[in-house]
Amino acid sequence: MEKEIKNISFTVIENGIQTPVVTRHGSYPNLMYLLKEELQLESFGECGGAGRCATCLVTTKSVTGASLIKERNEPNTLEQLGYTDQATRLSCQIYITADLNDAEITILEI
Q1: pLDDT < 70 stretches in the chain
Q2: Which residues form the 2Fe-2S ferredoxin-type domain (predicted)?
Q3: Is 1 within a domain?
Q4: Which residues pair with 59 in a beta bridge?
């Protein structure tokens, strides 16, 4: 039996403007690539997803599951910038999964 493909819907806020996003699991390597392409953001994600430059900084609300876990370079990069709260993330470290369904992602300026 073929697995049903479901849409993942969430809201992105950039400069106070809310944009609904609908995508599918694995449609992009990570959230950074989706945001860069869908919102055509310049100077966003300059290190290409290595979790080092923090040019893809976001806050998250209502993200669930494994997407809450900060791994690889993300904790150190955020700590160096003084971000210690759970909601501040590097979008390059968040995969496109059902964990994002109904979430709110706010793009931060650094």
Answers
A1: 1-5, 110
A2: 35-97
A3: no
A4: 88, 106
